[in-house]
Amino acid sequence: MNVSLSSGIVPAAFKQARVTPLLKKTTLNPTQVENYRPVSLLPFLSKAIERAASKQVVIFLTQNDLLHPKQSGFRSSTETALPSVTEALRVARTEGQSSVLILLDLSAAFYTVNHSILLTTLSNIGITGIAHSWFKSYLTGRSFEVSWQGQLSSTHTLSTGVPQGSVLGPLLLALYTTSLGRVIRSHGFSYHCYADDTQLYLSFRPDYTTVTHASLPVSLHSPHG
What we know:
Elements: H1 2-7, E1 16-23, E2 36-41, H2 44-63, H3 81-94, E3 98-105, H4 115-124, H5 129-139, E4 142-148, E5 151-152, E6 156-158, H6 168-176, H7 180-186, E7 190-194, E8 197-204
Parallel strand pairs: 1-4
Antiparallel strand pairs: 1-2, 3-8, 4-5, 4-6, 7-8
């Protein structure tokens, strides 16, 4: 583990995952592939070294105030997205404002992470040198095989994404999506995130029939007034 962290190289054996599909809910149709969550089972030593790396990264992010205040997932925080958004909407109502709330769930979030963008993001926040090389090694050369009903598939390589079921995956996803905040704010929305779930909300005076173009470029109409 020490050699890996000091050299910036993750052993190939640590990057081979066995994927076991798990039904998301017992009420879902088990014959439909989209109803399964493909959890990656990784070697014990792989998770041990990830935990060591994650601890150091979190310390670095905390000391440099780089943890996103609007992301409640993947961190030890007393504030979650639900109380934060609920309180903001309550205050808006107290002030006589109407609110629009949009709930977003990023589909296949863990599997669509672009490695090049993620590595650039890490570099921009100050993770450089051997540490950056280690993360590049961690992301590249990954492979997986699927275990289903006692059978194993052939091995496939991965060119995108972070493993769901890994220790570092959630933290890397949180860092990867941090830049979305600037886009959301540029349209006048407030927001809060919990993992890959995002709550967008916008409060305005009830006599506004159309929210300004800088906020929400659509007319708001209610069939019930």
